[in-house]
């Protein structure tokens, strides 16, 4: 018995490779769908804040800001929309360079 075109051994190899490729494709798609969605590269900026809202919006009256207000732009702050310094850890871990928006009076 050889490895010719009609050989049972060759047919078994073709079936085995096909089954393995199919299983790998299904596994990859399942991994991508179920596991990687919450990981870093889903394209979402906001991973945790008010996820039940269709849009996160905050509004403040200028008169209530005081002399200085510091707002988060990295979406990592536990006090969002205010900055709590979490951008420093984010920048260290990712190599990013985000920082807060600071609004202050000219002489403050
Ligand atoms: S914590 Fe987000 S910019 Fe500071």
Terminal CA distance: 91 Å
Please report which band the strand proportion falls in: under 5%, 5-15%, 15-25%, 25-35%, 35-45% or over 45%. Answer: 5-15%
Question: How many β-strand runs?
Answer: 2
Ligand roster: FE2/S2 (inorganic) cluster
Number of helices: 2
Q: Output the strand order for the largest sheet.
A: 1-2
Averaged pLDDT, please? 87
Low-pLDDT regions: none
Radius of gyration: 27 Å
Main beta-sheet annotation: 2 strands, antiparallel
SSE order, one letter for each helix or strand: HEHE
Helix content: 25-40%
The structure class reads: mainly alpha
Describe the structure.
Its cofactor is [2Fe-2S] cluster. Helix content is 33%, strand content 7%. It is mainly alpha-helical. The longest helix is centred in the N-terminal third of the chain and has 27 residues, at 8-34. The mean pLDDT is 87. Bound molecules: FE2/S2 (inorganic) cluster.
Write the layout of secondary structure elements.
Elements: H1 8-34, E1 68-71, H2 86-94, E2 101-104
Antiparallel strand pairs: 1-2
The structure holds FE2/S2 (inorganic) cluster (FES).
FE2/S2 (inorganic) cluster (FES) binds next to helix 2.
Characteristic terms for this protein:
single chain, 108 residues, mainly alpha, two-stranded antiparallel sheet, 7% strand, binds FE2/S2 (inorganic) cluster
Give a brief rundown of this model:
This protein is mostly helical and 108 residues long. It has helices spanning 8-34, 86-94, and strands spanning 68-71, 101-104. Strands 1-2 form a two-stranded antiparallel sheet.
């Amino acid at each position: 018995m050889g490895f010719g075109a009609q050989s049972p051994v060759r047919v078994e190899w073709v079936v085995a490779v096909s089954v393995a490729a199919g299983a790998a494709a299904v596994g990859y798609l399942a991994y991508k769908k179920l596991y990687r969605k919450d990981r870093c590269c889903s394209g979402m900026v906001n991973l945790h804040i008010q996820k039940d809202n269709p849009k996160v919006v905050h509004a403040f009256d200028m008169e209530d800001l005081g002399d200085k207000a510091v707002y988060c732009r990295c979406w990592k702050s536990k006090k969002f929309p205010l900055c709590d310094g979490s951008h420093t850890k984010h920048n260290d871990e990712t190599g990013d360079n985000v920082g807060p928006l600071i609004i202050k009076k000219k002489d403050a």
